[in-house]
């Protein structure tokens, strides 16, 4: 499917909005500032995004949807639990490294969403957590991991998600190396 110029322009507006929201906060960024940053007047800007909250929704939901799709693909491959967890962690950290602004906005600002938009984002996030629970449960079922409390998933994701604050894509370690270090420590702690 070929992207239209509308899709390309909309994606550009959303990417610039993500940078501005990550830097200045959702409430600290006005539509005038966003319009100036993308070089569009008010009417053209609204043509691409509809509303400021619509942009926040797009930023917040897009990366979570990508991670849900990635987790579904991995689960369909029938990987052993440890490899499944490792690939899920690597995929998440690669995505965070490539989309730091979007993740910063998601983690800091999604609570500004209202109504169905907030519900959709929370549902997508819960679905992603569910894939992690499935991966851990498969390891317990296969006898390679100890049973752990469901709350552990929030701890694992917190450990991985927090990297948006400090990970440097051009630093000494790659996203995969950081994910592997975290997963090695985790798996050693819960291996059966």
From TrEMBL:
This protein's record includes keyword Transcription regulation: yes
Top-level taxon in the UniProt lineage: Bacteria
Protein name: Transcriptional regulator, TetR family
UniProt cross-references to Pfam families, sorted A to Z: TetR_C_24, TetR_N
Keywords noted in UniProt: DNA-binding, Repressor, Transcription, Transcription regulation
DNA-binding segment(s): 30-49
Keyword check for Transmembrane helix: no
Species lineage: Bacteria, Bacillati, Actinomycetota, Actinomycetes, Pseudonocardiales
GO MF annotation terms: DNA-binding transcription factor activity; transcription cis-regulatory region binding
Organism: Kibdelosporangium aridum
Span of domain HTH tetR-type: 7-67
